[in-house]
């Protein structure tokens, strides 16, 4: 890296640090709200589309009226209940495990397992929950200041690593394999940024850049409010919009909390 590039990188990091100083009190709250948004929207949708969801599950799995109703009810209560617990910071770890279960259940029930794009997005959503789980462990330990901890090899560090790696799967679904200059440039920059987040190098700056990039893509390509509600594309774009918003929430947690102990940023401090 030459001097000009290094100066540009330092300037960008200074801007990111300034942003963090200004928003540090609000960023974790915003990150959690964004992260649970897809579960909140889906739980509300289960209520308003109760009959449609039940009939779909009954017809797809031939499981009968009762089991299909239980599926919809479990999704509604599990998602809305988990969102309330996370936002109120009560039993956050149990809420995260419950939402992990909802992701796994929907992956099977809606045959997402065989759709690579949706599977990768669900895994990215799981990465966001892993980061939230790591944050809740951090808060729990802070209540016992002075008590010896397990140090940098604690499970929290590996949760943060796993969360970062899973989060970047979202961006793999956004790559466009065509020969236009804009697509090639977007793929190169996007790939560089997701690698930086995954290995934990210049993590906060890379994650913040991805947040801005993903926000722009989300509002441009997933503008469901421009499509009449009766058209199937409205629900499809709405689903995509809130899933993307949840991944943005996970990235904001990376920005707020840092990459954790298993990262190049942390190892640099030892060099």
Automatic annotation (TrEMBL):
InterPro entries recorded: Surf1/Surf4, Surf4
Keyword Protein transport: yes
Domain of life: Eukaryota
Segment forming the signal sequence: none
PROSITE patterns according to UniProt: SURF4
Keyword entries, A-Z: Endoplasmic reticulum, Membrane, Protein transport, Transmembrane, Transmembrane helix, Transport
Membrane topology field: Multi-pass membrane protein
Primary site of residence: endoplasmic reticulum
Transmembrane annotation, as ranges: 65-87, 94-113, 181-201, 208-229, 241-262
Name of the protein: Surfeit locus protein 4
UniProt source species: Oreochromis aureus (Israeli tilapia)
